[in-house]
Amino acid sequence: MIDTIRLNGIKAYGYTGALPEENILGQWFEAEITLYLDLVRASQSDNLADTCDYRNIIDNAMRILREERFRLIERLAGEIASTTLVADQRLQQVTVKVTKLAPPIADFSGQISVEITRVAQPIS
């Protein structure tokens, strides 16, 4: 069985972007992370040890958003997904959505998002 935990509203100021000004001036990013795992045991035990303690996952995502520099938000989302899967072996897959809240595009007041899903590799 696959259940989900959704982590929304993870915001940080970072320096990812293909344009030079994005790497110098930076911009606000928002991440949403969906964790896929079996929560049957946790739903019965009410014990933190039986679920994913998502505090570390949020901290890692915030650090990556703030400190890592990439040209593409696709790469930024991929890095968050990779570190999330490594953070907890119970995760079966993860979906990461990264949004540029105010992309530097003339006459455009919208947002740009990338959403990726990665599946955990079986441990051999």
Task: Walk me through what this model shows.
The chain has a four-stranded antiparallel β-sheet with strand order 1-2-3-4, with helices on one face. With 124 residues, it is of the alpha+beta class. It contains four helices and four strands, in the order βαβαααββ. Helix 3 packs antiparallel against helix 4. The chain has a single domain, classed as GTP cyclohydrolase I, C-terminal domain/NADPH-dependent 7-cyano-7-deazaguanine reductase, N-terminal domain (GTP Cyclohydrolase I, domain 2).
Structural class of the secondary structure composition? alpha+beta
Helix content percent band: 25-40%
Question: Given the C-alpha coordinates, what overall shape results?
Answer: elongated
Order of strands, main sheet, comes to 1-2-3-4
Our count of helices gives 4
Taken as a percent bin, the fraction of beta residues is: 25-35%
Span between termini: 21 Å
Could you say what the CATH architecture is? 2-Layer Sandwich
Broad CATH class: Alpha Beta
Mean model confidence by pLDDT: 94
Question: What secondary-structure arrangement, pairings included, does this model have?
Answer:
Blueprint (H helix, E strand, L loop, with lengths): L2 E12 L5 H5 L2 E11 L2 H6 L9 H13 L5 H15 L5 E8 L11 E8 L5
Antiparallel strand pairs: 1-2, 2-3, 3-4
Helix pairs in contact: 3-4
